[in-house]
Amino acid sequence: MSISVSVPNETFRKMVENSGCEVDIVDWDLKSPAPQDFIDLVLLPLISDKPDLSLLGTVDSRLVQASSIGFEHITPHIGDKPLANATTVHETSTAELTLALILGQMRGMQRIVRSQDEGVWDTFTAPGLADKKVLLIGYGGIGKAIAARLAPFEVDLYRAATTRREDEHGIIYGTEEIKDLLPQMDIVILIVPSAESTIGMVDDEFLSLMKDGSLIVNMARGVVADTDALVKHADRLKIAFDVVDPEPLPEGHPLYSHPNVLFSAHMGGYSDALWPRLTALVQRQIRALTNGDEPENVVN
């Protein structure tokens, strides 16, 4: 059985060509209306390619495959077409970057780099990670990957999610308990999806509950943390993030130059692991549709 698969660029074309299945490849970069009315599998490019997602309304399909784990930016345009996200692709890379930002802040890497640039031999004591209380808010795939990578650093890990429950590692606190936990924490990590309940959850009240010198890390979505509140508390807290609202930050924004801020430019999943893992997922989806099986990661 042959299926039609749309590819947004040459990289995706190679994924599809090497799937081992009989496929009719349709070139569609989502910059203009779909070239045909029906495509079995629509592959979406990376968000950084800036596809016009409103064009999804110009085609019918059996499955739309996102290249990201987050999909809230796609759902307004998807209609009743099945949508799959990229679970299994970005978890490891995002967890790695989370640890890099945390270690950078907790071991004073900005000061180290600046001292090297200035030719200064600068020995100092930094807080470090060992024995610190860490609150991980969000316990999906990326949250679990972050938790696994924190374990060797001998932290005291607290986890929070929508509903309170227990697993083999202990208590997962409910969101209603977060405010009681915040004053105790040395590090707070955000890895929640963008939803009505999470937009703006890190506001002035939230940050005011954190103790002086503690670290807030946003790896979720920019809209989860109020940027003005981050600026207000930057003098007394450490701040790290991979996402912010707006993106990119406007030229001259105070978070660019503040000594207590360390950030990356929305690149959590962008490592050498991305393309092999995305290729494997796309090829599994092609095989599933070819064989009449259920595809992975359907979110709607």
From TrEMBL:
Signal peptide: none annotated. Coiled coil: none annotated. Residues 99-268 form the D-isomer specific 2-hydroxyacid dehydrogenase NAD-binding domain. The keyword Coiled coil does not apply. It comes from the Bacteria. Keywords: NAD, Oxidoreductase. Pfam families: 2-Hacid_dh_C. SUPFAM superfamilies: NAD(P)-binding Rossmann-fold domains. This is Phosphoglycerate dehydrogenase-like enzyme. The lineage of its organism: Bacteria, Bacillati, Actinomycetota, Actinomycetes, Actinomycetales.
